Amino acid sequence: SRKKNIQKGLFHRVSNGQISINRLLGVLFEYEGVFAIWSAHQSVFLAEAKDSDDLVAIKEVAISKKIEKLSIFREIDVMRTFDHKNVLRCLSYDASEARVRIILEYCPLGSLADLITRTKESESSLAESEVCDFGRQIASALNYIHDLKVLHRDLKPDNIMVTSGNLLKICDFGVCRVLQDGESKANSAKTFVGTIQYCAPELLQNAAYGPPGDIWGLGTILVELATLGKPFGESDAFLAICNRISKGAFRPLPESYSWKFRSTIQRILQIEPKNRPTTDELLKYPLFIQSDTEVEEYYEEDFDESSSHSDISDNHDSSQISSSIDSSCSSSDYSFNNDS
Fold first, then answer.
1. What is the mean pLDDT of residues 44-50?
2. Which residues are the active-site residues?
C-alpha cells in the first residue's frame, strides 16, 4: 500500500551502493510526511532498496571546489565508522567528479528543527519529560563519538534527525574534527565553524574547542526544545547574539519546567568549558536516566533557586569575546548563567 501512495518515478533505485539514475524533477515536493529537499548545492531523495522494501535517503551534493570535496569525503569516512543507535548511519556512497551521493538511513519524521516547527505551528509545547529524553539521546550519541575522538562542532536541531518512536540520530559531520593520536581533547581545534546561535563562547574568543563545545551545543538545543525559540533570542544581529552568548544569557525557560531541569541547563551552559559536565557525567544525571530515585537529593545539594532568574550577576568579561560587540544590545530579558 505504501508503494501505491508514492508517485511513480519518485525513487532512485539502489543496489550494492550503486545508483541507477532515474532522475527526479529538481523541485521541492512533499508527500505524506516524506520530504525531498532541493537546493543549489544539495538534495535529499527518498529511495527504495532494489531487493527489499527498505527505504533509504540519498544525500546528493554538488561539488564545485576542492574544499567541498574534502569536507564531504571527511563526512563519509567518519560516518562509516559509526555504529550507534543515535548516530545516523552511512550505508554507502557513489561519487563522480561533479557530485557525491551518500546513502543514509531514512528518518521519516525529518529533523529536530522540523519537530520544533510542527510543535509551534500546532500551538503546542514539548513536555519536560520529552525534552529530557531527547537530551539523553543526544548525550549518548556525543558520548559515543567523543570516545572515538570525534568532535561534531555543529550541533543544532537541523543536524539531528528523528525517526519512528522519536528516536534521534545526529548527522551532518561535514565540519567535524577527528583528534589525532596524542592530541589533547582539551586543546584540539581553533577554527571557527558552526552556527552562531549554538556556538560555544570559547569559539568567539578563538580559544581551543574540545568536547565541552559539543556539550554547550546540547545545552542550547535543550533550551530551544523547552522554549520553542532560538536559545539566544530571535535577533539576526550577529553582535547581539555574541553579546548574549558571552554572558550565558539564554532564553528564559518555561515556568512549568522543574528546578531540576533548570539546574541541569545551568550546569551545561557554563561559560568556562572546564566547568561543563562531560557526557559520562551527563548520562548519570537523574533527569536524563529518567529515574525518580534520589533525584531530590542529587539536585538539592547545590541548586540555588535564585540562579534561575535573570538577575544573576555576570562575572564574565565579555570584552574578551570582542571589543566591538554592541554594548547597547540589552540582555536583561534573558536568563544569566554564572560560572562558579
1. 71
2. 154
